Amino acid sequence: LSAFDLGVVAAEGLIMGLDRFESYKTKKKSSRDKLSSFVVLGNGFNSEELKSGLDRGEILGQGNVCARQIANHPGNYMTPSQLAAEAQAVAAEAGMECVILDEPELKEKGFGGICAVSAGSAENCKMVQLFYRGKPADKTVHLAIIGKGLTFDAGGISIKPAQNMHMMKFDMCGGAGVIGAAQII
Predict the structure, then answer these.
(1) 2, 80, 174, 184 - which has most CB atoms within 10 Å?
(2) Chain mean pLDDT for the chain
(3) How far apart, in whole angstroms, are the C-alpha atoms of residue 115 and residue 106?
(4) Between helices 3-18 and 47-72, what is the axis angle to 10°?
(5) Could you say which DSSP state residue 121 is in?
(6) How confident is the model over 9-59, as pLDDT tens digits?
(7) In whole angstroms, how far apart are CA 19 and each of 28, 33, 135?
């Protein structure tokens, strides 16, 4: 294990381990998220490499927590508009471009399948695009990440058994993962 790797796993594990989804609890179970410092014992490790790894692990942990937090909201909260708002917030914080296509635009551009699934919902569907350009002058796309962000209330008829219906809110985890990855990037 290198000093860099030790730093990554220590920071990422700590941040993810402290994550608690308590948004809907009136009485929070833990105050562990108020940790002000921690010590990594790595005798003989290069301290610069360790610090670099800790920085990377912090970024990775925060992106993973972002995706988790989005995914854990119930379907009546994490609607297409709310998912788009989460993406906009990450984009604004990171200085990325965020384009949100609403249902009329999607119909006009020929995205009939998405619009058809959305027909059963009271809320219009959305398609979110996040753009990060590390070198603004270079218009070449070097990486594209795509994730399904189908929120639970998107409409359509469910033919799945009712037994695990509460898990359907996780259909949008591909989109949540992309938003978390965008934050990391």
Answers:
(1) 80
(2) 86
(3) 7
(4) 30
(5) S
(6) 999 999 999 888 888 888 777 665 567 788 877 678 898 999 999 999 999
(7) 12, 7, 33
- Tokens matching residue 60: 């990775």
pLDDT tens per residue, range 124-168: 999 999 988 887 788 787 788 888 888 876 554 566 667 777 777
Containing 98, the helix (H) or strand (E) segment is: strand 97-102
For residue 66, the surrounding DSSP H or E stretch is helix 47-72
SS3 state of residue 180: helix
Of all helices (H) and strands (E), which one includes residue 13? helix 3-18
Q: What is the DSSP string of 38-61?
A: -----TTS-HHHHHHHHHHHHHHH
* DSSP summary character for residue 126: E
Task: Specify the pTM.
Answer: 0.84
Q: Which residues contact 154 (CB under 8 A, 6 or more apart)?
A: 80, 117, 118, 120, 121, 125
Comparing CA positions, the residue from 148, 152, 147 lying closest to residue 164 is 152
pLDDT recorded at residue 51: 94
Query: Is the distance from CB of 47 to CB of 6 less than 8 angstroms?
Result: no
